[in-house]
Each structure stands twice: as C-alpha cells, then as structure tokens.
Amino acid sequence: MNLVDVIKKDYQNFPENQTYSIYATDVHFKDPVYDFRGVKKYQDMINFLQKWFQNLHLDLHEIIENNDQINTRWTMSWNSPLPWKPFISVSGRSELRIKDNLIVGHFDYWDKSFWDMVKQHFKF
User: Fold this and answer.
1) Which domain holds residue 29?
2) Count of domains forming the chain
3) The domain spanning residue 114 has which CATH number?
4) CA angle, corner 64, sides to 63 and 69, nearest 5?
5) Is the pTM of this model over 0.85?
6) Would residue 46 count as lying in a domain?
7) pLDDT (tens digit, 9 = 90+) per residue, 49-90?
8) Buried b or exposed e, range 25-38, using 16+ CB within 10 angstroms
9) Rounded CA separation 78/32 (Å)
10) Residue 110 burial by Cβ neighbours in a 10 Å radius (0-12, 13-18, 19+)
C-alpha cells in the first residue's frame, strides 16, 4: 500500500470514507485543540467534526514523502453550527511520522492562532 496515494485520496474524500487502517492502533494525534493517542479516538474526532460542522472540506496543496515522514500542506474549511453559520477556514501543515508503513504520529500545525480561529466566528 502506497501511503501517499491513500492520504491523497483521504484528503479528497474528507471526512467521508477515511482509511483508518493506515494508522497504528496507538497513533499519537496532536493539533492546537486535541492531544490524544489511539486510532479509535482519531476516528471519533473525525465523526464529531462530520456530525457538527457543515460543508467540511480539506484541500491538499502539497504532499512530500521524506524517509520516515510525510509532510502535507492543506486548508480546511467548514460552516460552524452557530445560528448564523459562519464560514471558517484554516490553513496549516501536517507531519505524519511513519513506522512499518503505518502512521504512528499525526501532528497538525495551524497557520493561525486558536484565537484567530475563534474570531472568525464573529464579525467585528
């Protein structure tokens, strides 16, 4: 299985039909909001996003494989579940650490601060 090809397909389909089998059972996931271990918790997080956020998209801009790591650049956007349905967008990057052809670490970094994300929900 070529991980880069699977990841490209998962980004295109996000949040539907994700390939959780490419993750180690105890994968470490971390972003500015979450920090946990376990592919089941990762799946639960994706299901939460899918349930509560509308028009959820993940656009892949770049993917580079380098030995035991795959790096991606992306933009994720959605409409928040507030009555006025604000459009939210964040660009960032992911570092996917690989061992035995499985992702053992998934670390997301946003180009905006958490508070910049919160401010997008309100027009000032």
Assistant:
1) 3-119
2) 1
3) 3.10.450.50
4) 115
5) yes
6) yes
7) 999 999 999 999 999 999 999 999 999 999 999 999 999 999
8) eebbbebeeeeeee
9) 17
10) middle
